[in-house]
Amino acid sequence: MLVSLDGSRSRLVSRFHVSSDSEYEPGAGNGKGKSTYERCTMTIPLYVGVDIGKAKNVACFMGPDGAVLLQKATFDNTASGAQRLVTKAKELLVNENCDHPVFGVEATSFYHFHLMNFILQTDELKSYRPMVYQLNARNVKNFKKSYAPRGKNDVYDAFVIADNLRFGRLPKPYEVDEMYLPLQRLTRYRFHLVGSLIREKSYFLTMLFLKFSNYGDVFSDVFGATSRSLITDFYSPEEIINTPLEDLVQFLVDKGNNHFAEPEELAKELKRIFRESYRLQPKLTDSVNLILETSMNNIRFFEQSIRKIENVINRDMTKLANPLESVRGIGPVYSAGIIAEVGDITKFDSQAKLAKYAGLTWNSNQSGNFVGEDEPLNRAGNRYLRYYLIEAADSMRRHNAEYQAYYQKKYQEAAKHAHKRALVLTARKLVRLVFALLDKNQLYRPG
Length: 447
Description:
This protein is α+β, with helices and mostly antiparallel strands. Helix content is 53%, strand content 12%. The longest helix is centred in the last third of the chain and has 36 residues, at 282-317. The protein is elongated, with a radius of gyration of 29 Å.
């Protein structure tokens, strides 16, 4: 590193602050962004590591040579507390002859969100060109291992974050994103709702086994309209068995809207299956029925909420250029999830960098002459982007002939975990298409 001697303080100070070409920076060293040399700027940085808490933030101010200028500075996690942090940073910039503040926070739910935006938007620091880094908690933890063990406290954690900033290997600096952030909040909330729906359905099925132990053999979709009515309208297997056949047939016709080709045969099959079911203890029946009814209401709520969010996503996507929707099988919701997480595609110089950002790469499993059969998926990337890419790939394998053939090929090649492996590989193939369409802003034309 190029250094110069600061005679006034008799210490070496860095004359360059480098935004590192690390594997965590999507646009590092690429042709579209700036090269490593171009991104080096003549500067004397002030490093500020902030340990975030819901109520209090603890900051450590560090000079470019690693000297701690102010080790324990506590600020409320409020607008006034953030202003005090900024004022102290400006004071040290002047006193220490630094000209460029570099802030680092460890990602902690949403507690760091307001502070990052406050720092970048405050007029007090604009002339100093502040940079803010959102550091991955796992990376900070691993960096901390290079020090002698000292336990954990807020002051020490702030010091580690500040030193991590000084050593480099940083992600891309945080930027205030007014274009994609509102959409991202919606798509991430949809992700949360879908996860909640899956968990609720899984719990419902465990309770359903207690009431109707053989129920899985009846309907292909347990959560279809007819199935839901059957579960909640009938108290026990005995009630279904004792219902006259013609009444049960009429129930299936009414609830199924004449969907079943042979409702009488289905009614007979229902009676046969429920005769083979376990019988629940009478004292437990009321409790199980109440749980199933409540759980079914939760499932309906999650489904309605997802539809509501998707309607808003569809509306908002009409305001953005969306070449991904030209691909049959992706649709507005999946494309919204992808675009919201990718943001400005110029951050990525290649489809490989985009795949790495999504965590759709594989860790090598090799040592010497040994080559492992399994190469685990690297899950260190953006889990939301990975989710929407995989969901889109799953849809495309059913609606797009090219991707269907590719999925089948990878499925047949897999020795184990065939579906999961083939689906993730299909998502990796989709990354190349996503990058090309967004990079060129052009519609999809099947080959």
